[in-house]
Amino acid sequence: MLRTDSGKAFTLALIIYLSIALAIAGWLWQRTPEPHTSPERVVPVTLAMFASPPEPVVEPEPVVEPEPVIEPEPVIEPEPVVEPEPVVEPEPVIEPEPVVEPEPVVEPEPVVEPEPVVEPEPVVEPEPVVEPEPVVEPEPVVEPEPVAPRFTQADIARAEQQYLNALSETLARHAQNTYPRIAQRRGLQGEVYIRFTLLANGQIIDIEIIDSSGQRLLDNAALEIFETHMRNQFKPFPEQINRERWTHTVPIEYKLR
């Protein structure tokens, strides 16, 4: 490979030198004076012009010294493990069991049988003489004299009617005073039947609608008469009405005038 490169370099150098020589010859030719002006000047051509250039000095490749061979370290075999001899535990010393001396035999004492107990005969007491109780004759039953009622049935009926009339007038007055304005503007009319229970002190309980008017506004207004305006209270029963409670049904009418 080195020789081939040297040949190529030599050929290239020869071509370069020939080119230079021809260029110089041409230049000298042009500068040659005319015969009548100056004598002819001859430039000598030497072999040195055509000599091959010296070959480049090839430096020798550096000598690579081989790496020193590293000898492996000798393998040190481990010393064999010497297992310790098992410790032999001494056998436990078995102490002899103590000699148990037998207990002395105690002879039982002779059993002395008790003498039989003679129970005394029971004393029989005489039964007491029961005297007969005296016969008590019942007292004659005295019938109470009939008490005349304070009020006649006519008085009771009249008092109940007056009480119901007063209640109906009160409910009618509240119905007209609480007629919902929006129901009046819409022309809503109707009659609501409400059942309730009156106590003797005039308290009103168990209020419910049993027949609706068909209009929610009128039904709610009728219930508000008892709950809001009357506060579930009316006047107590008069003494002619001997009742603890009285269940009644009344109509509340909403009618445009």
How would you describe this protein?
It is built from four helices and three strands, in the order H-H-H-E-E-H-E. The chain has a three-stranded antiparallel sheet, with helices on one face. The chain is flat and about 190 Å long. The protein has a domain at 153-254: 2-Layer Sandwich (TolA/TonB C-terminal domain). It has helices at 2-30, 153-177, 181-185, 216-229; strands spanning 190-199, 204-211, 245-254. A hairpin with a 4-residue loop joins strand 1 and strand 2. Mean pLDDT is 78; it is low at 36-40. 28% of the residues lie in helices and 11% in strands. The protein is α+β, with helices and mostly antiparallel strands. Keywords: Cell inner membrane, Cell membrane, Membrane, Protein transport, Signal-anchor, Transmembrane, Transmembrane helix, Transport. The chain crosses the membrane at residues 9-29. InterPro entries: TonB (IPR003538), TonB-dependent_transducer (IPR051045), TonB/TolA_C (IPR006260), TonB_C (IPR037682). GO terms for molecular function: energy transducer activity.
